[in-house]
Amino acid sequence: MTIRPNREPAGGTVAALLRQSDVMTHGAKVRAVAGRLSALVRSAPATSVLCAVMIVAAAVTVVSGTNPDALLTQLGYGLPAWQQGHPLHYLTGALVLPTPELYVVMGPLVVLAVGYFERRVGAPRAIGTLVLTHLVSTVGITALLALTDAEWPWAALLARQTDLGISAGTIGVLAAATWVMPGALGRRIRWIGSTYMVVMVLRSGLLWDAEHLFGWTAGLVIGPRLARRVNRTAHGDPQAIAGRAPRIKRVRAALACTLVVLAVSKFVTALYPGNGGIFGPGLPPSLPLPGRIVGAAVLLALALLVGNALRRGLPLAWWAAVGLAVVGLTSAGLMTGTRYTADLLLWGLLLAGLVAGRGYWPWRLPAGALARALPRMLVAVGGFLALSVLTWWLLRSQLDGGIHPHQIVHRALFEEHAILARTGTAEALLTATSVIWAIALLAVALPLLYSAQSSSRTPHRRRSGGRTDEQVLTDLVVRHGGGTLGWQRTWPGFTAWISSTGDVGVGYKVVSGVAIAIGDPVGPLLRWRAGVAEFQKFCLRNGWTPAWYTVSDRFLEVMGDEWRHTVLGEDAVIDLSALAFTGKSWQDVRTARNRADRDGIRCERIDLRTCDPALRRGIDEVSFGWVNGKPLPEMGFTLGTVAIADDDMMRTYVALDAAGTVHGVTTWMPVHRGGKIVGWTLDVMRRRCDGFRPVMEFLIAECVLQFQAEGYDIASLSVAPLARPACVATADADLLSKALDRLGEMLEPAYGFRSLLQYKTKFHPRFETVHLAYFSQMDLAEIAVAIGRAYLPELSAGQALSIARALRPRREGADPAARPAAVERQPVA
């Protein structure tokens, strides 16, 4: 026997500690998950018990191997169960589903609907609503079938059927829960849900479709009564703050949702074929066909794309929606039998609604865009016809029946059941041709559908005296100001909008379908409300979502409760009348000035258009050196550049040594009030990486002293986005504000927003809050994406990876305070 020495190999102790650390980390994760699960169960105990009962029922069903038909006979509820004297089946059958896979669908629905409602209104009301809506739906449809004329084929078919599960009650709870949801979200779910339930009864007509409609209706009736007993102000209901969306937006959204619901219902009936609805022949459902599922999936994809464009008001959206409605009508009209009566009715109503609401899509596509798309469409149609004929000829012996011309139309409309294949090979080839045809349609339609999102749709108007909107907006900024960021409205890349009365102006930029207005409206304060309403209508008619970026407290006071808002950041403003670099708190600034004097560094104001070419090359060298030396992308939008300062209204100051070397550069925007300049706002600040280290403190100090000597009132250091003083962040308990604080914390290592805010405190400014104002909480995701793309319009994959690497130390626990502050460039919100 070999006796091994009791000795750890090299590194053994470290390896053991790492293994122990991994075990502890794993154990901590398990405990954290268990703690969250326990908290979730405590917050919704009734839902947890209901889910546990469903899990036990699913396990028993799987272990026993009970046949679904046997379950429906033994426990199912419906008219047969009532006639046989089994009223308890309406309760016992609610806890059982006929097949195990249905538990996978019902489980999440119960957790989301019942769990959410229980947390809002309490367990007793949630369970009471669930039981009540379940009984109203199941007993109600039983009574309806018992009283209906037996000659109605649909009713006669359902009178012989039974059902299982609590889906109708769960859907009723979801309907009731919409009344305690945020106003805009609740209204949209009620509209979509009501439309879907009615469409499924008309088109599919299965027993559970009718029960779902009854349960949904019962929930809509019960919900308002329960909602009045709930304190909705704690939930932050948008309707309590902002009014209803304008009519143009509601009509567009309603028609878009209807189109998508029709496509979704077609896809659902392809997976679970119905009996033809209330107008149907009263025949049992047929088996699902793979070709029909593919066609329904293609229609759903097209409907989602067209519906989104329809909602946004894009020019081709109306025509595309009309095309889909005509396709649906044509497809239903070519079929024989009453099974397709509902399709004719539904697509006809949608087409009528689109025609009646034509005025809500006022824009037209340029003729050139249509001319470019037409040849592509003809090529796609010709290729489809050729491919279809070739496929049919090759498979002629594997298809049922002959090939007729009208089947080409069916195939083009993705009605795959028009041709039945006898072999798997034939079915696969037919499906492949449909997929190729769908891809060709999308390739042609998408570029045309989304070709008119840009602001180029808005012509530059010339007003009296031949002045453009940009010139009028500049005059308004000079006359009325517009805050410390007022001059940004005149920058290249922003579009000017002037009200019909000519006294209110807005500078905006359209990104991803969102019109981001910069700062407050420019004009008389009494005209702001009317100007904002007119600008909102202008945006909605263009298919844009309006958002007001970096607005002041005055904007919120004037608009009242019409617009929701959240804090974006703080504008650091220095009052020049009381400025003096005295006292211990100004030590850093005095040290920077003294060192500059000792090292021969001076501050000089220059004109970028007339300065010495060698000096301009030195400024460009500092600017490009800073940009090229950073692995992260340069941000744009409201962040200025040296090139923008090539303007007779802006000022540029540089720090030079005795040899003429540029060590730093700052640019400043004018702040107007009452037709004159009353201050300056810092825009760009960049320094040479290997130059005079405290050059920014020196430049800013010299500039504000010169502004003070010239008699100006204020100097703004501008806004550091996603970075707020601790007192403001602590007092603001808004959920979105907390999310922005968290985002600023994550991005701190990459962009140094909070470090910049801390840096500004050296100059002891007063902070003025700026906000993001938006009309509906439903627009937040779209606005957030647009703002991100505005700041980083050309973000490459490599730059995204650089951002991820910059964020990695923060995720690993590194101290962001140990990283250098990113103060070379002023990130204006």
TrEMBL record:
<keyword id="KW-1133">Transmembrane helix</keyword>
<keyword id="KW-1003">Cell membrane</keyword>
<feature type="transmembrane region" description="Helical">
    <location>
        <begin position="253"/>
        <end position="273"/>
    </location>
</feature>
<feature type="transmembrane region" description="Helical">
    <location>
        <begin position="344"/>
        <end position="361"/>
    </location>
</feature>
<dbReference type="GO" id="GO:0005886">
    <property type="term" value="C:plasma membrane"/>
</dbReference>
<dbReference type="InterPro" id="IPR024320">
    <property type="entry name" value="LPG_synthase_C"/>
</dbReference>
<feature type="transmembrane region" description="Helical">
    <location>
        <begin position="46"/>
        <end position="68"/>
    </location>
</feature>
<dbReference type="GO" id="GO:0055091">
    <property type="term" value="P:phospholipid homeostasis"/>
</dbReference>
<feature type="transmembrane region" description="Helical">
    <location>
        <begin position="373"/>
        <end position="395"/>
    </location>
</feature>
<dbReference type="InterPro" id="IPR051211">
    <property type="entry name" value="PG_lysyltransferase"/>
</dbReference>
<feature type="transmembrane region" description="Helical">
    <location>
        <begin position="88"/>
        <end position="114"/>
    </location>
</feature>
<protein>
    <submittedName>
        <fullName>DUF2156 domain-containing protein</fullName>
    </submittedName>
</protein>
<feature type="transmembrane region" description="Helical">
    <location>
        <begin position="293"/>
        <end position="310"/>
    </location>
</feature>
<keyword id="KW-0472">Membrane</keyword>
<dbReference type="Pfam" id="PF09924">
    <property type="entry name" value="LPG_synthase_C"/>
</dbReference>
<dbReference type="GO" id="GO:0016755">
    <property type="term" value="F:aminoacyltransferase activity"/>
</dbReference>
<feature type="domain" description="Phosphatidylglycerol lysyltransferase C-terminal">
    <location>
        <begin position="478"/>
        <end position="774"/>
    </location>
</feature>
<feature type="transmembrane region" description="Helical">
    <location>
        <begin position="428"/>
        <end position="452"/>
    </location>
</feature>
<feature type="transmembrane region" description="Helical">
    <location>
        <begin position="126"/>
        <end position="146"/>
    </location>
</feature>
<feature type="transmembrane region" description="Helical">
    <location>
        <begin position="166"/>
        <end position="185"/>
    </location>
</feature>
<feature type="transmembrane region" description="Helical">
    <location>
        <begin position="317"/>
        <end position="338"/>
    </location>
</feature>
<keyword id="KW-0812">Transmembrane</keyword>
